[in-house]
Amino acid sequence: MNENFQKIIIAVVVMAVVVVGFILYRQQKTISSLSKAIATNEKTSSTGSLANLESISKNGSGASLVEQQKKGMEDSTMFIAGTVAAVSENTITVEANMPDWDKMKEIASSANSADKPRNAPTYKKTYKVSVNSETQFIIDKLDSIKVGNTIHITSKELIYQTDKLTAVSIISPFKEPNL
Question: What is the dihedral of CA 99, 101, 105, 107, to 10 degrees?
Fold first, then answer.
């Protein structure tokens, strides 16, 4: 009976890691595709001048794509990956790089190709993450998490709506996938 319970727990943990990995992969892929869409804003029209933003928007690129991506992520993202800034008894302070939607829209609207970065612009956001008895730890436990560690947190809350999260699961140490 105990052996079956352990197998079930291991299967659940493996599935959780796979799901979290897939979600991170999709988020990074979305950010990468957004960067490529911003780069496509550099295409010229038949007259030799830069294509206007309205025609780019009709093709699913530029500023409208930024707005679509922003809306989709704000309405569904419940995880962060970042660096541990502080650890206390039941709280972890995490600094995460978040997409800077305003700069992305500005870049998508810009006619100057020199303004177009290779990567999507980000800004640092600090989150206070509450840990409770229901929080699942994958790899390290709370007492093993140190300042400077890279960490992944799945929360109960939408991350774009608040800076105070309740951890459902924590992966520490966490290595972001190379995409």
Answer: -40
Q: How far is CA 142 from CA 79, 145, 173, in A?
A: 18, 5, 11
Cα atoms in the Cβ-side hemisphere of radius 13 Å centred on 176: 16
* 118 CB-side CA count, 13 A: 0
Amino acid letter, residue 21? G
What tens digit of pLDDT does each residue of 16-49 get?
Answer: 887 777 777 777 777 766 666 555 543 333 333 2
What distance in Å separates the CA atoms of residue 85 and residue 150, rounded to the nearest whole number? 10
Q: What domains appear along the chain, each with residue ranges and CATH number?
A: 2-172 (2.40.50.320)
Q: Give the chain's length.
A: 179
Question: How does pLDDT run across 55-73, given as a tens digit for each residue?
Answer: 333 444 566 777 777 787 7
Cα separation, 173 vs 89, whole angstroms: 19
